[in-house]
Design a protein that fits this description.
399 residues; single chain; Zincin-like; 3-stranded mixed beta sheet; mainly alpha; 5 strands
């Protein structure tokens, strides 16, 4: 969970929309979480979105061309072997080929975007560069989703069997969210030791945590992502000034160096109270589970509608499946963002009540917002934002 977007740089900060960024990966389109940071240039995110849409359009057109010959070949092979399930074979073949092509296409496009953002030979990639340590892995879950949309309607199995199959395949997708949780739980001790907070700064925060039952915690001051030190530490790879990370054994709270310099001791304690609220209320794990539940619900919804509609042929099936997925995932995203805003409101309320000093808390948030060049978002920005606006927080605090 995070408190505020990190836009710290040597030059004056540019105005930004929104007040906070959550721990979710940056989705660039309706069908994929592209491996770019939230601070990546807008053109980079748009390029990946356009690449995804181009792939989907090309896939639909190409499928129409190859469907006839492939189906005739599979029908002959299936009948020759005494089997009549050629539609299922076609669906499986189409799913595997589509997933492989999707991975290769997005890997190539992501590499091109990375080269454009950070040309070879110009030193370490800036914070705005796409994070493409393993772009194929980042897109694998979405490739499986497309495979599901193509496979389920063709599978010649009883209704109960394909429902179970949908759940199992959706579970594979959810494993990617569990992988994210495992990545957070297993933070190397070396990363913590390199940037531990000074004892005089940490003492008031440890005392506040102890008052609420948290004795074992890590307080880390990480350098900002764009301070000229190259790629950000893994602990601070999210563009946030402060964040809580649910590491195994000890709760870890990460603050950027710029935040520690910006706030005095009382304000830093207020910000820590907000992150402590996320630990106290179990928000990180609940958010991971909400992501998983949303994906599972979307897969089951698309599979159920397609089973009920029975589209006539792949030419109708493919765009229908993609449209249904876009609609269901858009709805799930809006519900998830509303749930995350509710979590942030809970954290704000808990922090104000715990510190007992609404004035200091509001002042800290306003200083952070001013530091980030905050600008009131549009109605769409408010709908998609993961945090309430500063005005709402001020009203909530009774100021």
């Amino acid at each position: 969970m995070t408190l505020a977007s990190n836009r710290v740089s040597a030059s004056p900060p540019k105005p930004t929309r929104g007040f906070a960024r959550g721990r979710s990966r940056g989705a660039t389109g309706a069908f994929a979480f592209a491996p770019v940071r939230a601070s990546a240039p807008a053109w980079a995110r748009l390029a990946l979105t356009a690449a995804e849409l181009l792939f989907l359009l090309a896939a639909v057109a190409l499928e129409r061309q190859v469907r006839g010959p492939v189906v005739r070949w599979l029908r002959g092979a299936g009948l020759g072997a005494g089997l009549g399930a050629w539609p299922a074979y076609y669906a499986a073949l189409l799913s595997v080929a589509g997933a492989a092509a999707y991975l290769l296409w997005m890997w190539a496009i992501t590499c091109l975007v990375r080269m454009a953002v950070c040309p070879t030979g110009q030193g370490a990639a800036p914070a705005a560069a796409p994070s493409v340590d393993n772009p194929a892995e980042a897109h694998l879950g979405e490739a499986v989703l497309i495979a599901i949309a193509l496979l389920i309607p063709y599978a010649l199995v009883p209704a109960r069997v394909w429902i179970v199959l949908s759940v199992l395949l959706a579970g594979v997708i959810c494993m990617f969210d569990l992988r994210d949780l495992g990545r957070l739980l297993n933070v190397p001790a070396q990363e913590l030791d390199e940037h531990r907070m000074a004892s005089d700064q940490a003492q008031p925060l440890r005392q506040l945590a102890a008052e609420h039952g948290l004795e074992r915690l890590n307080l880390v001051v990480a350098p900002p992502a764009d301070d000229g030190e190259g790629q950000p530490e893994r602990l601070a790879d999210q563009p946030a000034l402060a964040q809580y990370i649910p590491t195994r054994g000890r709760a870890t709270f990460v603050f950027t160096r710029s935040l520690v310099k910006l706030l005095d001791a009382a304000a830093l304690r207020a910000v820590f109270a907000h992150e402590l609220a996320h630990w106290r209320l179990g928000h990180s794990r609940k958010t991971i589970l909400a992501h998983m539940g949303g994906r599972l619900a979307c897969v089951l919804a698309v599979a159920s509608v397609l089973e009920w509609m029975r589209p006539a042929g792949a030419a109708t099936l493919v765009p229908t499946a993609l449209l249904l997925w876009a609609l269901t995932w858009t709805l799930a995203t809006l519900l998830l963002r509303a749930y995350m805003r509710r979590q942030e409101r809970q954290a704000h309320a808990w922090a104000v009540q715990t510190t007992g000093d609404p004035g200091t808390y509001v002042d800290a948030l306003e200083r952070i917002a001013g530091h980030n060049g905050y600008r009131e978002p549009t109605w769409l920005g408010r709908l998609l934002d993961e945090s309430p606006s500063p005005a709402e927080v001020v009203h909530m605090a009774g100021k």
